[in-house]
Amino acid sequence: MILLSLAWRNLWRNTRRSVIVLTSVAIGVVATVILDTLSRGMVFQMLNNQVGSHVTHMQIHRAGFHKNPVIQSTIADSEQIENVLRSDPDIVQYSRRVVTFGLLSSATNSSGVSIVGIDPERERSLTTIRSYIVEGSYLTGAPREIVLGKALAEKLEVGLGDRVVAMASAKDGTMGSELFRVAGLFETFSSEFDKTSIYVPRSSAQTMLALGSEVSEFAMLVTDPDRLTEIAERLRGRLGEEYEVLPYMDLLPFLVLQIELYDQSMVIFYVIVGIALIFGIINTMLMSVFERIKEFGVLKAVGMKNGRILIMVLTEALFLGMLGTVVGFLVGYLVYLPLSTSGLDLSAFSGSLRSFGVGAIIYPVLTAGVITNALIIIPLMAVAGAVYPAVRAMRLEPVHAIRYV
To answer: CA-to-CA distance for 358 and 49, rounded, in angstroms?
Structure first.
């Protein structure tokens, strides 16, 4: 307690110098926290957009379909899977889909697309694609309706009510085709998704691809996404090796890896900020040591051991780092609060953001990782910056220090 009291008193011997260092630490923490929360918000938004618009929490396919999504790899016994999903208390909603790649043509142009046959009513509560409709309407369930991205419609030069032809390889080896009428256009978070995805009634897709009642996948939502691995393992045990049960972490490995890499890179970023602050800490603590050389000489002369002097100087730096970090974090949190509800509007860069699968408004996300990085790394770096001045103080000879002018 005596060392803590001495360290706190010594910290405020030169109030102006201490306030300047505290301010620099606080500003560094504010900038880092805001950048960290916004960057995490952007990465999580990319993931949530993908999961919410199409991927969902989990999908079930015939074994091998995810790596090689050929039309022949379909689920023949849908009833078996539906019985399993209906009896599982962790499955909130599910829907059957037909998924394949094909060609969509208009009178003037054509484009390769991902054809998704859905049950419109079930997809309403499963995905958010309906909320992205900007022209026309969502699928009503009537045969030969189609909704497509606005960017794709512009490429094909079609609008509401126009006719388009979808073609894809059917299960029997023939070329399946179907005439559709444009019912609606959507514009999502991703320009790439808008250019390559179309939605049609599942029954129309099954007819076109000669599937009968077979489907390509089951998409579903669960009660607790944090337990996805556990739920997936349970479903695999009940369904057997004939089917693959994939949580979104397996369906979107690049995005999941990006989040993991981001967590690691932000630690490095905090360390870089801490290293920049170290120079201020070193300068402050060296000045403090030089101003108190006689005091250190007296303390050593009356029996204070080197280790206690080392601890006292390091504690002063720890107080500087902790106080500056806490003030900076509180200011950063006050900036974060309004941004977390209103978001940061980056509409001027919406085109670039949509190419990355991010919306024009970024909502920051405060996680335990942000708090841990801010409240631990910066104070530790402050202590590291005080090691050299502390060693200098510890090595002072009492006789020379007391006579120091």
So the answer is: 8
For residue 161, which of 152, 169, 153 has the smallest C-alpha distance?
Answer: 153
pLDDT digits (tens, 9 = 90+) for 13-45: 777 877 887 888 888 888 888 888 888 888 888
Kindly report the pTM of this predicted structure.
0.76
Contact 150, 185 (CB under 8 A): yes
For residues 57 and 228, the answer to whether their CB atoms sit within 8 Å is yes
